[in-house]
Amino acid sequence: MSGTSSHAPHHPPYGPPPLTAPGAAGTPRRPELPPYYEDRSPGRGALPPRAWYAGSDAARLPLHGSWRFRLSVTATAEDDSFARPDFDDSRWQDLWVPGHWVLKGHGTPAYTDTAYPFPVDPPRVPDENPTGDHRHRFDLPEGWGEGPAVLHFGGVESCARVWLNGQELGHFKGSRLPHEFAVGHLLRPRGNVLAVRVHQWSSGSYLEDQDQWWLPGIFRSVSVHRRPEGSVTDHFVHAGFDHTTGLGTLRVDCAPAGRVTVPALGLDLATGEGASVPVLPWTAETPRLYDAELATPGERIPLRIGFRTVRVEDGLLKVNGRRILLRGVNRHEFHPRDGRTVGREVMRRDLLLMKRHNINAVRTSHYPPHPAFLDLCDELGLWVIDECDLETHGFGQQDWRGNPVDDARWEPALLDRARRMVERDKNHPAIVLWSLGNECGTGRGLSAMAAWIRERDPSRPLHYEGDRSCADTDVYSRMYADHAEVARIGRRAEDPLPDPELDARRRRLPFLLCEYAHAMGNGPGGLSEYQRLFETYERCQGGFVWEWIDHGLRQLTPDGEVYHAYGGDFGEELHDGNFVCDGLVFPDRTPSPGLAEFKKVVEPVRIEGDGVAGTVRITNLHDFADLGHLAFRWVYEVAGEVRGTGSLAVPALAPGESAGLRLPAPPAAPGGAEALWTVRAVLAEDTAWAGAGHEVAWGQLPAAARPVRTPPAATAVPRRGEGNVILLGPGTFDATTGTLGYLDGVLLRGPRLEVWRAPTDNDEAAPRQPGRSPAAEWRRLGLHRMRHRVDAVETLADALVVRTRVAAAGAEPALRTVYRWTARRELLRLEVSVEPEGDWPAPLPRLGVRMAVCGSVGHAEWFGGGPGEGYPDTLAAARVGRWSMPVDAMQTPYVRPQENGARPGVRWAQLSRTDGSGIRIEGDPDFYLTARRWPVEELDAARHTTDLSPGELVWLHLDHAQHGIGSQSCGPGVLPRYRLEVAPARFAFTFSSLR
Ligand code: GAL
């Protein structure tokens, strides 16, 4: 660390770089010397990295705004005379900085997952290398003064060469890392001209093969910082917490030396001097920060100090002496209009949403985020894995031949990246692990990075997933391991490594899933089962859902309708489609159902019990906080109607404790209806991230045994009506097909068997698992084009029976389906029985009936699971109640349209017009209700949300069963218990009309 007398500064003060002025001749290529954007070096001329801080009393001048811009198709199309202050840029265009030029109408974005969008020939890049020349003229504010200053770039993709007032400062790579240049000697009060040439492709692109859009540009802020004589060159806050004594330890190293004051702790220390005082520790649940000030002869910096100690001990990852459980997400920086230019408000919004959904950890996949994000993590309380800007995944496609991380010539670039991350971010209490990068295979470059980081900051363990041997890491991390494997790892019984020593070492390490539960489209399924493993095995310390947000880019149709674009929508020759849309929130940051599910699954309080016996058990699953910050409330409902509410006195249980409590006497008798207790834990007071009353956890307990459903006795007799119809009770049927056409005057397209659903991304399972796609198998079997042959329409004494065989063209297996209709007064009952015939090699997508009603019947109300969608392995968040919403609101707008919107566990549903007329459906047993204004075929064919337009009908699916969702778009498929295996089935619905 740079520091006081005992800690020598590790870089020189801000001197002028020894570089050249622009020449008229451009940059002719000399074959023996690669141009700077194609050499392996991290760059030249930049200052050593230092800790970032939001502000100080040294002036800063942000340079955001409208710059002048010219785009060339190659790196050498234009010479560098544009860097001269007097260059005439009047024919250039305006461009807002920070931003990505491809999102501002210059060129187009491109998406690939792992493939490099250019020939793999490191470190060379293609001739087609979009190059943006930028110019910006600025004056210094009044009173800026003279003396040292630095020019700061927060992030530029992928390589920049920089001039100020005609003097070249240098060039750099490392897109999501800061770079600074000494400029004090060049600045003038007025008329400074900053010139920046940015190449989309550089040798650095080989190190930045993250699964995301390729978005060139100066995408983070650019600013000039005054560095007065005696200002802080660098500082390192060491703040630990000893849980055995309750003492915090503090030492702030700084160059040059100065003093640190922490008023709340009565501390006034020299830098480099240590102190031990009683403190409240920092944790993600209790993010206590102490305001402090660092003062050197030339500068005062406000600090926010969090005391905490991270250790790997006893095979566990511990903070302040306790095992932590990571309820995490992977977060890319993304905004649907601005790409990776993400403002502070958006960052805060992400974090508030996370906190409100019980998320306590973020992996900054796969690069250090904007530093303001880390300030917010300190403030709001999140465990952070800070990951280096490094991924070489595309080399995997060639067996890792030529992988830069195993090539000594790339080592300076790798070390530069490690340094820039650690130096910039080292003072954040929120960061508990450093990550070397993502998906780079293995190699000595990673070991070199690890060795440097360990030396520089021994206080944080290291993470990297790509090396199964864990030689360079302190935690065992994996992505997408299935439940069974996680259980084996939990028992420390995983398959051994070939090297017994490494194996023994790894077996002692804590385990986390740096990625799991791929949230692409509908899903992820199987979250509850993972959570159970994390709670069962102490070694399994949770994980990070892949990922936080869908990277869909906002576009307009010619009619001005908004949709979100994904790979291929910009004509890329190589792309990975909608694999870029796999988040828990939609591109506009609306929570998707997956987020609601995750919130429920990871809730830090468990509420369970026996409502019939009147008892409830509350368990505190926090790692640090007691339950004093929560209030508990109950609601008692009969048939979905509230009959009583109250609060429950719950002791301030310590983490891990649980208590059994008595519920009050039921406020009303069930009277043969379904009665339920709902107990909710809500914030007792406002917090920094949500207001008092915000719900953190809930549980529902039946208050009485569920009443048995007795089918209405059949009393009506089927008879022929006028025309080719059969009348039965309120139903009018087509006599040839046996299809219901009217229910008491409401026009219908009668229910008939349906097994198809518009495959979800998890059903498709593409693109990483070709050949293992359930949807491909379903299509092969023809489940999307089943034919219905009517074998008999029989009118019996009290029933109409329609016998059918449902099968696909070209296929032998069939579903013999019998519809048995009976009626009693205004009630019409349908019993469906399904007998499979032949060999069925795959489970079914769904099993139920589909029907259509007039589109005016546009409002749904139901008693069952809600308010959002739920499928067999995604229904933890479905709460039983009476829900009501327009059919249009029941749709989940997945970026690529697919099966969505099923409400699980529905006892009854009503679909009505504005005047209250419509139909009512009761299930026997409960069913999944889906209602939408387009048929499944249109949903299946749509590529974007705007491909769907409401038709004249509302299509209803009443499903007896659905196949689970799983996470196979990148991970394990549906767990066996959630597969919809083909088997004989019987289910019934009772229809009536609403008047
Ligand atoms: C992982 C990778 C992520 C993302 C994910 C799939 O292998 O680390 O960046 O590509 O798969 O969405």
UniProtKB/TrEMBL annotation:
Its EC number is 3.2.1.23. Residues 1-49 are annotated as: Disordered. It comes from the Bacteria. One of its GO terms (molecular function) is beta-galactosidase activity. Residues 29-42 have a biased composition (Basic and acidic residues). One of its GO terms (biological process) is lactose catabolic process. Residues 11-20 have a biased composition (Pro residues). One of its GO terms (cellular component) is beta-galactosidase complex. It catalyses: Hydrolysis of terminal non-reducing beta-D-galactose residues in beta-D-galactosides. InterPro entries: B-gal_small/dom_5, Bact_Beta-galactosidase, Beta-gal/glucu_dom_sf, Gal_mutarotase_sf_dom, Galactose-bd-like_sf, GH, GH-type_carb-bd, Glyco_hydro_2. Keywords: Glycosidase, Hydrolase. The keyword Hydrolase applies. Pfam families: Bgal_small_N (PF02929), Glyco_hydro_2_C (PF02836), Glyco_hydro_2_N (PF02837), LacZ_4 (PF16353). Residues 726-992 form the Beta galactosidase small chain/ domain. Belongs to the glycosyl hydrolase 2 family. This is Beta-galactosidase. It comes from Streptomyces kasugaensis.
